[in-house]
Amino acid sequence: MKLPDGFADKYRRLLGAEADGFLATFDEPATSGFRVNPLRPDPTDVNLSLSEPIPYSEWGYYGKVDGNAVDHVSGYVYSQEPSAQMVGAVASPQPGMRVLDLCAAPGGKSTHLASAMRGQGLLVSNEINAGRARVLSSNLERFGVANAIVTNNDPDTLAKAWPETFDMILVDAPCSGEGMFRKDHDAVQYWTPTYNDECAARQRDIVAAAFKMLAPGGTLVYSTCTFAPEEDEQIVAWLLDNTDLAVVPLDHAGVLAPARPEWADGNPAIAGAGRLWPQSHRGEGHFVARLQRPGKLPEHVPGRNRLQTPTAEQRTLWSDFADYTLVADAVTGDLAVFGDYLYAMPHDLPRLKGVRVTHPGLQLGEFKKRRFVPSHSLATALPPASFHTTVELTDAEFGRYRHGETVRRPDIDGRHFALITNQGKGFALGHLVNGTVKNLVPKGLRV
Ligand SMILES: C[S@@+](CC[C@H](N)C(=O)[O-])C[C@H]1O[C@@H](n2cnc3c(N)ncnc32)[C@H](O)[C@@H]1O
Questions:
Q1: d(C-alpha 221, C-alpha 136), whole Å
Q2: Model-level pTM?
Q3: What is the complex's ipTM, to 2 decimals?
Q4: Does this UniProt record's set of keywords contain S-adenosyl-L-methionine (predicted)?
Q5: For residue range 111-120, what is the model confidence (pLDDT) as tens digits?
Q6: Helix, strand, coil percentages in the chain from 3-state DSSP, rounded to 5
Q7: CA within 20 to 30 Å of 375's CA: 109, 277, 338, 390, which one?
Q8: 112 CA closest ligand 1 atom index
């Protein structure tokens, strides 16, 4: 690969004898990986025949999953490069925590955090870019995450709304992406000898805002997919100088190499952070640090939010649908209406005033002229056992249904909604009308 001018010289200076091995990796193919979804009743019921587990990532495997395979479409797997999986492994939030993923799109780390949280507690996934926030919401829906909301704000706005609010915050920072060079040619084009300093200035602003939102006793995880000390060790040094955070040393017994204090201000505590290098590990490379505030985590105080609750008519429309389609208590959470849409919102929400919430929880459906139209997200959020009726499709029918076609099941009478499955995995809803399954795959998801 043609590396940008100045890049190789910089890493020869930093790495000395190790530089040749590091620079040679840019001519090797990129590595792929995925995680299985522990939120599913049978997480390993996916095609793992050729996949080898990633030793440091509880649900991770090396290998590639086809984006059109049922395992992907039904949210049984999430494709994520192996190094990136170290971040979720280091964070490992406990179920019940209040967690903020500040730079969250498209959702690789958020779905990993949600896996560890097991549906308990609150995950706030924030993304500054509106288009990317929409992709994030749909990836969380596909993965069946019901205890998350998505916000679309800059970090300073959130810091004003949510002082000392979260038990854990992940900053997976926008960076120069040197670890993406093998996968993303644009990252190579952007790089100049001053780009790392420009990224570092933005990263300092982001971590400063993140720190304001961290509760006493809380944990900040900072990560990048770049090798540049300006964006890695030097950001940790800045946090140690400007906040009461301390580095929690990571386990360097496996693939994670110690970070390099000499590439920042020499503070030996920085070595507790970790680096994944592509020359010594099967992955693209990453930096990760875990830092903690002194003190004891406070009790969560739910914010006083004035949410629009459903009207009596809307409640009836919802319960008519739910009673007829779902088993009892399939949906938990507080019912709230946003525009024409009904959501089940997670409990323990902080105050939402001043925050742009673009995905307030699990979208249940839309009220349309005195009718309730269920949302696609129910198909991947709820297990098949939650539905009174499921319709299993053959592999050939699966492809046609995703395309938007109807299927026939003459043995099923009446009119009702059903979960559509392939290989037992729910991936869409359908409306059965006298033996014909009308296709409810949203137009934007048809292929
Ligand atoms: C490395 S990516 C996050 C990847 C994500 N965590 C994942 O695992 O899928 C960084 C994200 O930060 C966002 N971003 C860019 N500028 C930002 C800023 N000033 N403050 C917060 N986020 C920003 C980008 O839009 C991008 O989605």
A1: 20
A2: 0.97
A3: 0.99
A4: yes
A5: 999 999 999 9
A6: 30, 25, 45
A7: 109
A8: 8
